């Protein structure tokens, strides 16, 4: 592509190819270290969450007691009780 005529804005940009000045450091900035500070409620929450992580999901003593009753034939749940619990859960939306 050829551009005919004098276009001062374009020739001005390309015509100024002289030396440029280098930037020098004028002021050094001291860097600070990052620091994390937790509020009191955040610390309490952290302690509570750690305690919950140590609690097992299954209460083995209760499970063992029910298994023992099942094995002895002493644990029986009526169909009516099961249906009532299912209906209750369905009403709550699980």
Automatic annotation (TrEMBL):
GO BP terms in the entry: bacterial-type flagellum organization; negative regulation of DNA-templated transcription
Domain Anti-sigma-28 factor FlgM C-terminal residue range list: 34-87
Keywords linked to the UniProt accession: Bacterial flagellum biogenesis, Repressor, Transcription, Transcription regulation
Lineage: superkingdom: Bacteria
Coiled coil: none
InterPro entries the UniProt entry points to: Anti-sigma-28_factor_FlgM_sf, FlgM, FlgM_C
Similarity field: Belongs to the FlgM family.
Name the record gives this protein: Negative regulator of flagellin synthesis
């Amino acid at each position: 592509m050829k551009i005919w005529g004098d276009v001062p804005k374009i020739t001005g940009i390309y015509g100024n190819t002289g030396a440029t000045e280098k930037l020098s450091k004028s002021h050094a900035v001291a860097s600070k270290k990052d620091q994390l500070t937790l509020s009191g409620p955040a610390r309490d929450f952290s302690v509570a969450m750690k305690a919950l992580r140590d609690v097992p999901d299954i209460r083995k003593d209760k499970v063992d007691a029910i298994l023992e009753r099942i094995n002895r034939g002493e644990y029986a749940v009526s169909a009516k009780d099961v249906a009532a619990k299912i209906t209750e859960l369905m009403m709550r939306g699980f």
